[in-house]
Amino acid sequence: MCRSALRFRVPGDYAVTDVTEADAPTQARSEHTADVIVVGAGPAGSATAYHLAKAGLDVLLLEKTAFPREKVCGDGLTPRATKQLVSMGIDISEEAGWLRNKGLRIIGGGVRLQLDWPDLASYPDYGLVRKRDDFDEQLARQAQKAGARLYERCNVSGPIVNDLTGRIEGVTAKLGEEKTPVSFHAPLVVAADGNSTRLSLAMGLHRREDRPMGVAVRTYFESPRHDDDYLESWLELWDRSGPQDRLLPGYGWIFGMGDGTSNVGLGVLNTSSSFKELDWREILKAWCASMPEDWGYTPDNMTTPIRGAALPMAFNRQPHYTKGLLLVGDAGGLVNPFNGEGIAYAMESGQIAADVIVQAHARATYAQRELALQRYPKILKDTYGGYYSLGRAFVKLIGNPKVMKMATQRGLTHPVLMKFTLKMLANLTDPTGGDAMDRIINGLSKVAPKA
Fold first, then answer.
1. pLDDT by residue (tens digit) across 335-387?
2. What is the largest CA-CA distance in the chain?
3. String of DSSP letters for 210-226
4. What is the pTM of this model?
5. Which of 69, 140, 176, 178 is deepest in the core (most CB within 10 A)?
6. Are 409 and 109 in contact (CB under 8 A)?
7. Does residue 15 sit in helix, strand or coil?
8. Which has the closest alpha carbon to 216: 328, 343, 311?
């Protein structure tokens, strides 16, 4: 996207000078300067860049790898995530390669319960499935179409910080296969670089140890169950490696991909006393071995190695804005502690961050812009804080094997209770005009601490 003017900002301030292409000091300077730099082109970064570019801001989107590239994920998208895809103008038709799902099938305690996604005004009544190696590229290309300037194979090495103000003013990086050292400059930087978020760490933002962490491991199998139109969740995960079987705080999943394969994996919370000592890949293998042979979840049918990733939950890195840096998605610990869902919250936080930045960009003075930017953490806490606090309490409860066993054995026998649980765990309610379940969940989220 060609722009007739570049908007340079004085370091440490936001005074604007319009400089035409002809007046720019060098071509490299114009190519590497923008209104906003977004580090990471996953769902959070691409959503942020898309909404910023749609609003007319000049955005650099820096991705350390090249598309297509793989990410560890269940590949199943709830109606929350589906709504965000629609808001980005993504073609989510079956012809475009998306597989729709009707709801969630829950298995545990000898019970098999099939629940449709709730019928709400705020969200669609279906979810989607798509592999991450293709999904992320779809979003990044959409951001490009909106006007964001995408640099692939751009490995950000650290922040550029003003010595006087302590504000971030850009990033250093190594670009291309040659790993050419480059620097990019902008008055605002968005960290969308995932759980490891080296950029946040370099700015002194460390993980909070009082917030839950999870781990997800998954693989793909060739399977006749590939075209299942329900996401499947198994609530009983057992560690059978010791003298006594132990029920683990987490769940297993089976998501049909519609392409001849199933995504099979598990997500477990660190509230288990045995969390650090267990080999999750071996537990996944043992779980798959317990399934019916005709499903095809056998070593011979495995199409990829077992891979794992961390799940940073419940605002485990704060503040979400400081000194010119905003955190979105996994970098800010926005994974839902109830169910391990991250994509919806990554995209939502990207849209929220973009809206705040656009408003700040229009303010006349540095003080006014900073006042607008300081709203970002408050909006996140108002939107998710109470709900995430409930999730943290939930995580502590299911960390007790007795509670987990009682929940799976007794809760699943009550369909109305499980309908409520589905809404609660997936965070799917209408904020106004909903049913009694919506009002209870919304009320609980409002009164819970927004920490």
1. 999 999 999 999 999 999 999 999 999 999 999 999 999 999 999 999 999 99
2. 75
3. TS-EEEEEEEEEE-TTT
4. 0.91
5. 140
6. yes
7. coil
8. 311
